[in-house]
């Protein structure tokens, strides 16, 4: 969450231990100077501190998904939970997570969110990440606060730990293809929530074309890893989840990985596809799903570097002023989606630029010690936030802030 500190820590660690493999002395010395220069650049860049202060101020005000939305969304709570725990009382964060537990449905499903005032829940059924987002958020809370007592809280007669198990099982019972061995949802743009068949396109209906994508499955893999690391459950459930984790990872590679183009197929359709073959959907690169796949451990270090290079190539090919947070490239052709917010290219989820996904790719790059790449990716995101003096839901083709402020 404190990206500046993470960058400096990683760089200093590299310099101190000299972990440069089989590099010759001259190459090691040159790399050593490069690292020192990068540390200086980070420390000298005052925009990092300004952007961090803006983010802390934003997260201190409320858990709403920006000023435009009077709701608390679990996918956004999960995305920003680490920094929220720095600026919000831990009990308040815990109450948010427990509220989602209380709102869990009888079948185990978790709502997308709830109204901040009335606590009335709502769900966009085209998505398949509500349950996995909730489990991940609870893991982050426990991992940071060391407060595992949240797992024992009883909500409507059932503990939070049991509810986490039920949430994951709901996905396997209702949104899992036994043929492919993978999680599915409606056809949407990468991690988005709008299907092409109708307006607004938020709910599964008779027009829906069920589809498998890498994002939903990577979110499940991370959630399983998180659940197993904090839950006290019986050996049968542990074995079940470990087997599912292995199976999902293997099937993602088998069915979704396009080895010829070093990318993921946008979708594998359960039945038929909503788009004509001439739409050339398979040429589209899903930035967000690829990022979460890297976080889930699906990609090797070399593949992560290739993904980063492909994302940069896509940004440059777009001809705009975007960052690697760009959702997809190329965007879907005009008119394929009926909802006007995504019917045109570079509009919202159809090619818009989202910091809260681009930032996670920066985290991946730092984890893999691709520090200069992380720095070059992060700086333009930070600079535009400082210029706008706010975080926004997304940024358009010209780098104009769009959607909700206070994001």
Name the overall outline.
globular
Structural class: mainly alpha
Percent of residues in helices comes to 40-55%
Q: Are there runs of 5+ residues with pLDDT below 50, and where?
A: 9-21
- β-sheet strand percentage: 5-15%
Q: What's the end-to-end separation, in Å?
A: 15 Å
Mean pLDDT: 92
Question: Can you walk me through this structure?
Answer:
- The chain has 407 residues and is mainly α.
- The protein has 14 helices and 15 strands.
- Strand 2 and strand 3 form a beta hairpin.
- The longest helix has 22 residues.
- The radius of gyration is 21 Å and the shape is globular.
- The protein starts with a helix and ends with a strand.
- About 3% of the residues have low confidence.
Briefly, what is this?
By secondary structure, the chain is mainly alpha-helical.
Please describe the topology of this protein.
Elements: H1 3-17, H2 25-44, H3 46-61, E1 71-73, H4 74-79, H5 81-87, H6 90-102, E2 113-115, E3 121-122, H7 130-145, E4 154-155, E5 158-159, H8 160-174, E6 176-177, E7 182-183, E8 211-212, H9 214-230, H10 235-256, E9 257-258, E10 263-264, E11 268-269, E12 285-286, H11 287-296, H12 301-318, E13 328-329, H13 355-367, H14 371-388, E14 392-395, E15 401-405
Antiparallel strand pairs: 1-2, 2-3, 4-5, 6-7, 8-11, 9-10, 12-13, 14-15
Helix pairs in contact: 1-2, 3-5, 3-14, 6-7, 7-8, 7-9, 9-10, 9-11, 11-13, 13-14
């Amino acid at each position: 969450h404190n990206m500046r500190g993470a960058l400096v820590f990683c760089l200093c660690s590299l310099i101190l231990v000299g972990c440069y493999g089989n590099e010759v002395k001259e190459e090691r010395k040159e790399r050593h100077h490069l690292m020192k220069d990068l540390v200086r650049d980070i420390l000298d860049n005052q925009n990092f501190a300004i952007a961090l202060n803006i983010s802390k101020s934003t997260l201190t005000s409320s858990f709403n998904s920006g000023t435009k939305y009077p709701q608390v969304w679990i996918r956004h709570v999960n995305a920003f939970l680490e920094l929220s725990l720095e600026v919000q009382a831990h009990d308040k964060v815990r109450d948010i997570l427990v509220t989602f537990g209380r709102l869990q449905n009888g079948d185990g499903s978790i709502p997308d969110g709830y109204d901040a005032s009335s606590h009335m829940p709502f769900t966009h059924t085209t998505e398949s990440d509500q349950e996995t987002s909730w489990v991940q958020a609870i893991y982050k809370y426990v991992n940071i606060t060391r407060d595992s007592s949240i797992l024992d809280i009883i909500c409507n007669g059932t503990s939070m730990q049991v509810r986490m198990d039920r949430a994951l099982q709901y996905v396997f019972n209702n949104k899992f293809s036994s043929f492919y061995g993978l999680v599915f949802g409606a056809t949407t743009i990468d991690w988005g929530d709008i299907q092409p068949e109708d307006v607004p396109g938020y709910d599964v209906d008779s027009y829906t074309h069920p589809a498998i994508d890498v994002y939903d499955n990577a979110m499940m893999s991370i959630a399983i890893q998180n659940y197993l690391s904090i839950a006290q459950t019986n050996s049968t459930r542990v074995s079940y989840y470990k087997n599912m984790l292995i199976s999902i990872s293997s099937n993602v590679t088998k069915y979704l990985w396009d080895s010829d183009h070093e990318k993921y197929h946008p979708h594998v359709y359960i039945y038929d596809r909503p788009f004509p073959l001439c739409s050339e959907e398979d040429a589209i690169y899903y930035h967000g799903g690829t990022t979460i796949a890297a976080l889930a451990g699906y990609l090797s270090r070399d593949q992560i570097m290739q993904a980063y290079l492909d994302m940069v190539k896509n940004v440059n090919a777009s001809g705009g002023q975007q960052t690697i947070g760009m959702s997809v490239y190329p965007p879907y052709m005009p008119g394929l989606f009926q909802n006007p917010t995504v019917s045109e290219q570079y509009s919202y989820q159809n090619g818009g630029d989202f910091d809260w996904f681009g930032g996670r790719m920066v985290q991946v790059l730092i984890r893999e010690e691709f520090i200069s790449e992380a720095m070059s990716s992060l700086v333009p995101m930070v600079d535009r936030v400082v210029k706008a003096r706010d975080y926004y839901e997304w940024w358009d083709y010209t780098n104009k802030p769009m959607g909700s402020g206070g994001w």
